[in-house]
Design brief:
42% helix; 3-stranded antiparallel sheet; Rossmann fold; alpha/beta; single chain; SAM-dependent_MTases_sf
Length: 273
């Protein structure tokens, strides 16, 4: 194992991850309702982005796929179309309901779903290809990656954040308005790359140039409501200032208010020798 004596990347990940309350709410994730999952899956750009991400994942006829954190199937269906079979491991009940419903609508029969966090999933066999697309929801990133590598027979793919996310930037902006403490930063893909390196896994990394998740609202009032909910603004005293922020930072098009996603995403790939 290659040792890094200057930086403890696993601790860096743990410290950053621990401050993210959403990711630590395991029960909340497990009990996500179907309605909540449907709201996420309702945006066409999410599915288009999933199609593009899946296109970069090489799957040969007859190969088996394990997808970690499948969500409502954003990437799953494109992968299943190329694979012999796909096992979708997803902790959120609502997400799996949406995935199963959508698979039935599309006539897809080669997907097996399992409700579990990756850490809790019992791997009983290896899979040719293992994918974790925007799903590194774990405090123990070293254990997550080691288990992922052990489950992989041929190739592994990870999609994750390569830059400050648009919502991290927005959190800082809203914090400046309210005077509250800004949200913590999500650990980025450089940590993943370095931990893999310390595990003697030499991976490739590339930027996903088309991945983007713009947030679209029917009115500035809807945008205000969303901002206050997401960033826990529980008073109306800042509404005027937040409206000015929306007018300045959102794109107005065809009566809609669009908050552009400037996040840079990346893909990590490694092959088993």
């Amino acid at each position: 194992m290659i040792k890094s004596f200057s930086v403890d990347y696993n601790t860096l990940w743990q410290n950053s991850y621990s401050s993210l309350s959403l990711n630590n709410d395991r029960e909340g994730i497990k009990n996500m309702s179907k309605k909540e999952a449907e709201a996420y899956a309702a945006f066409p750009n999410v599915w288009e982005d999933g199609r593009v991400r899946a296109a970069g994942i090489r799957i040969l006829p007859g190969e088996t796929v394990l997808e970690i954190g499948a969500g409502p199937g954003i990437v799953s269906f494109e992968l299943a179309a190329k694979a012999k079979s796909l096992t979708a491991v997803e902790p959120a009940a609502g997400m799996l309901q949406v995935l199963s419903d959508e698979a039935n609508k599309r006539g897809i029969t080669n997907i097996e779903t399992v409700q579990a966090f990756w850490e809790d999933y019992e791997v009983k066999t290896q899979y040719d290809v293992v994918v974790a697309s925007l799903s590194l929801i774990t405090k123990d990133i070293t254990g997550f990656l080691a288990k992922m590598n052990a489950a992989c027979r041929k190739r592994a793919y990870i999609h994750w954040f390569a830059s400050e996310t648009s919502w991290e930037k927005q959190a800082r902006d809203i914090a400046e308005i309210t005077g509250e403490e800004s949200y913590a930063s999500v650990p980025k893909i450089n940590i993943v790359f370095n931990i893999l390196y310390e595990m003697n896994i030499l991976s490739e990394i590339r930027i996903l140039k088309t991945t983007s998740f713009d947030r679209i609202f029917d009115s500035k009032e809807d945008a205000l409501t969303s901002l206050k909910k997401v960033y826990a603004v529980k008073t109306d005293r800042y509404d005027s200032a937040i409206f000015k922020y929306i007018e300045k930072n959102y794109i107005q098009k065809n009566g809609l208010y669009i908050y552009p996603d400037t996040t840079r995403f990346a893909e990590i790939i490694w092959e088993k020798e």
